[in-house]
UniProtKB/TrEMBL annotation:
Gene3D superfamilies: 3.40.50.2020. It comes from Pseudobdellovibrio exovorus JSS. Keywords: Allosteric enzyme, Glycosyltransferase, GTP-binding, Nucleotide-binding, Transferase. It comes from the Bacteria. Its cofactor is Mg(2+). Belongs to the UPRTase family. GO terms for molecular function: GTP binding; uracil phosphoribosyltransferase activity. Residues 7-209 form the Phosphoribosyltransferase domain. The lineage of its organism: Bacteria, Pseudomonadati, Bdellovibrionota, Bdellovibrionia, Bdellovibrionales. This is Uracil phosphoribosyltransferase. Its EC number is 2.4.2.9. Pfam families: UPRTase.
Amino acid sequence: MSGKVIVIDHPLLQHKLGYLRDKETGSGEFRELVKEISRILAHEVMRDWNEMRDVVVETPIAQTKVQRIANAPVVVSIMRAGNGMLDAVLSMIPFASAGFIGIYRDKFIHNTVEYYFKMPEDIKGKMAIMCDPLVSTADTMIAAIDRLKSYEVKKIRILTILCSEFAIEKIRHFHPDVDIFTLNIEKEINDLGYLVPGLGDAGDRLYQTK
């Protein structure tokens, strides 16, 4: 099955993205904006969910049948910037479990290095929703997808605020079945691997590191 690229174009999201791009936006406001955007992304990623179960409940008036989500997804943070999205996504999908992947591209060995990996025991057969605010070169994202697929997840979807054209093509090449949900597709990457115009280093701006 071919993966989709969904660009969520909404005036409220574009308004919030404008403040994320602004270098004058402080860390506290930046964190809140990332959370607000992540909640909306979580809503969109679940829009076509079709695994439901029927449950009988009592309303204050009468007995009725309602639907609840079955086979809940696993929300995966690509650390550390993905942590800025994780709680917000889980607030929208509170019945989901969570996983963590710590991975980075080492400029000396020219390869990705995994330093942390922790997943729920029952991840097999579940959808994995991968959270990372920015996907630039896609090297770490592809390595993370490789790891998740080794655990036989059912489907993988990426939630990101900004994604480069280059990253989309690279992900499509290595993992054509993965869906990508984003606010905007950036056309350029500079020599340091940053998206242009982008919003800088999301992790540094979230946590006031350098």
